Amino acid sequence: MTDWSWQHLGRVHLIWVAIAIIVGLVVLEVRSRGAMTAFLSQLMQRRLAARASFARTLTRLGLVLACLVFGVLALMQPTARGETASMSTTDANADVLFVLDVSRSMLAVDASPTRLARAKAEIDNLVKQLDGDNVGLVVFAGRAVEMCALTMDYAYFSSVLATVDTTSAGRGGTKIGAAIKDAIKSFPPNDGAKLIVLITDGDDQDKYTEDAAKAARDAGVKIVAIGIGSEAGSTIDLKDPQTGAVTKLMHDGKPVISKLDAETLRKVALTTEGAYIPAGTAAVDLASIMQSHVKPLIAEAKATALRPSADERFVWPLLASLVCLLASLWIGAGAGEKSVPERRARGSR
């Protein structure tokens, strides 16, 4: 098992649940035996109640615990690293992670109806241009939140995307660098094609965005940065969910003006050898973006991808779990048998 890796290591904590269950069963067994002893002598218990010895019961519960533990190990989806080999463009899938800015500056109306609404529409349309690649969604403002892990279920992705709003990240601000670093962690540990499609107005408050871009480059992740909004800037409209009244976001008695920071996004994209697309406020030519920027990056990464084959190993702990279950049932089946001395005593009468 030294060469095994675990796809869902966090599930190991389910073992504590299994232990708690067994401890609870042991406590109930001790209490039931104590209650019976209070009313019946040992001789009457043997004559009236056909039950296993305490040692036999503990053995059975130990096997049940082993069954549950091996079941948890199977749920952790162990794999063994196989040989590393080049995969052709037809065999390898790309991992495309959309990183969407949901800060309040995305409520600016220079891109109709708002920057955020436009960005969501563009993501939904971009996904429809992909063919069999994994897609995921990370939203960010003052912090990043993974809304949808990488998946090929495009319908589920779209349903999650539809729920996104400016409260999805839970903290104000705009930290592009932190979002990129968190997005890198969402990719699986392989050498396949990895692409971040960053959609933001670039109104950045993070001092470490360039360092995050370098970390993405070192991890083999390319970034396509799509800038939404105008460089001239726009006011930010806030809508009251109760009354529907629309007010301007103010600071020191003046409307806040949010501008597209194209320079930051351009640096991020170039650092990772990706591409910067100034979508601005006009309609985005999706077909052109896919053909000129996104698909070439995916194809390039796929063509040179070296992916280790992963041999599934969950069947072994699953088999061990089944063996332990059958053994516990076999021991439990003998619980109702009378002891040999007692059967002999009855036979002599």
Plain-language structure description:
It is elongated and about 95 Å long. It has 349 residues and is an alpha/beta fold. The strands form 5 sheets. A 6-stranded mixed β-sheet has the order 5-4-3-6-7-14, sandwiched between helices. Strands 1-2-15 form a 3-stranded antiparallel β-sheet. Strands 8-13 form a two-stranded antiparallel sheet. The chain is 44% helix and 22% strand. Strand 9 (237-239) and strand 10 (246-248) form a beta hairpin. Helix 1 (14-39) runs antiparallel to helix 3 (54-75), helix 6 (176-185) packs parallel to helix 7 (209-218) and helix 7 runs parallel beside helix 8.
The SS-based structural class is alpha/beta
General form: elongated
Radius of gyration over C-alpha positions, nearest whole angstrom: 30 Å
**Got a strand count?**
15
List the uncertain runs. Answer: 83-91, 337-349
Counting DSSP H or I runs of 4 or more residues, the number of helices is: 11
Strand content: 15-25%
Whole-Å distance between the termini?
58 Å
Instruction: Provide mean pLDDT, rounded.
Output: 76
Q: Main sheet, how many strands, which sense, barrel?
A: 6 strands, mixed
Helix-residue proportion: 40-55%
Strand order of the largest sheet: 5-4-3-6-7-14
Listing every helix as H and every strand as E from the N terminus to the C terminus, the arrangement reads EHHHEEHEEHHEHEEEEEEEHEHEHH
